[in-house]
Amino acid sequence: MAAEYRFSFGPWNIHEGADPFGPAVRPSLEFAKKLKMYKQLGFDGVQFHDDDAVPNMEHVSPAEMQRQAKDVKKMLDDEGLVAEFVAPRLWEDPRGVDGGFTANDAKCRDWAIERLKRCNDIGNALGTRLRVLWLAREGTYIRESKNAIEAYQYLLEALNTLLRYDNQCEIAIEPKPNEPMDHAYCPTIGHAIALALKSIDPNRVGGLIETAHALLAGLDPADEMAFAMSIGKLYSVHLNDQNGLKFDQDKSFAAANLRTAYNQVRVLELGGYPETGRFIGLDVKAMRTQKFETSHKHLSNSRTIFLKLVEKVRTFPRDVEAQCIADRDYEALELAVLQHLMGG
């Protein structure tokens, strides 16, 4: 079963435990040692921000940037790993304070486009075609600060610029309704796919759906995934969990709502997601209370629960499901699902 799905996570998912209310509580683990943990934990893919691969990417020549990225590619090869995607980290640069692609300042927008191109070049050096756009600060704290009509046009222009720059790359837009901005552009997969379909090459633009982001929008992640899969636009997922409508928690997959997790796995199974070859990505945080020696368990736990839920989906009695649907007895179907999940 494990061989049918490929799993990935980003190096930031093994972290020091700092949050807005307190400093780091665990020592750092160097990147090379993190890579050695991937296979041990059952993962094959590495998610990258551009400066995860080339930390000083803004201050080196294109040739030096390529050299450093190729060094990382060799590290991946040596560990039997592949890069799943590369994403431009615009939100931590002062020039992205008002958004990068949607900034009111044209110079900041130009910077964001150039960084996007550099990110693309790093992705090619790492051997991945996929670029992920999490539009972190592409939004507003107050609506009057930007012309949202223009902002969406700027986003479309950024997509088209990258599609023209590299005719082989793919782009996955990762929607989120809020945080760090109060009002974010592209809050749902519907918004993301609408932009994709307006681009100059819709066949190369899709979405990445994160469990917590969908829940923060008040939506069902399984239905968001189903919508994207119905038109062939689910390029990746970030599985995690969320305990209510609060800050983005990135809890271990299924930790807060097992039924919601089951339905995400079910829709991935119904859509034949493993056959696409795309990854099951995790974006989960270790609890701040976790000790350094066990600060990777959130990753292995999430993968374990996912595979157990795959088994639950595949062993659900189809005759019972068919009969309940034929009888339009959804109360019986609900009980059957709950009993199956509880092992009854």
Which keywords apply here?
344 residues, TIM Barrel, two-stranded antiparallel ribbon, 13 helices, 45% helix
Mean pLDDT: 97
Count of helical stretches: 13
Structural class: alpha/beta
Radius of gyration over C-alpha positions, nearest whole angstrom: 20 Å
Order of helices and strands: EHEHHEHEEHEEHEHHEHHEHHH
What would you give as the CATH superfamily?
Divalent-metal-dependent TIM barrel enzymes
Number of domains: 1
Helix amount, in percent? 40-55%
Overall strand count: 10
**CATH topology group:** TIM Barrel
Can you summarize this structure?
This protein is of the alpha/beta class and 344 residues long.
Structure description:
The protein has an eight-stranded parallel beta sheet with strand order 3-2-1-10-9-8-6-4. Strands 5-7 form a two-stranded antiparallel sheet. It is α/β, with parallel strands linked by helices and 344 residues long. 45% of the residues lie in helices and 13% in strands. It is built from 13 helices and ten strands. The model has no long low-confidence stretch (mean pLDDT 97). The radius of gyration is 20 Å and the shape is globular.
Topology at a glance:
Blueprint: E1 6-9, H1 31-41, E2 45-49, H2 50-53, H3 62-79, E3 82-87, H4 106-126, E4 130-134, E5 139-140, H5 148-165, E6 170-174, E7 183-184, H6 189-198, E8 205-210, H7 211-216, H8 221-230, E9 234-239, H9 258-270, H10 273-276, E10 279-282, H11 297-315, H12 318-326, H13 330-342
Parallel strand pairs: 1-2, 1-10, 2-3, 4-6, 6-8, 8-9, 9-10
Antiparallel strand pairs: 5-7
Helix pairs in contact: 3-4, 4-5, 8-9, 9-11, 12-13
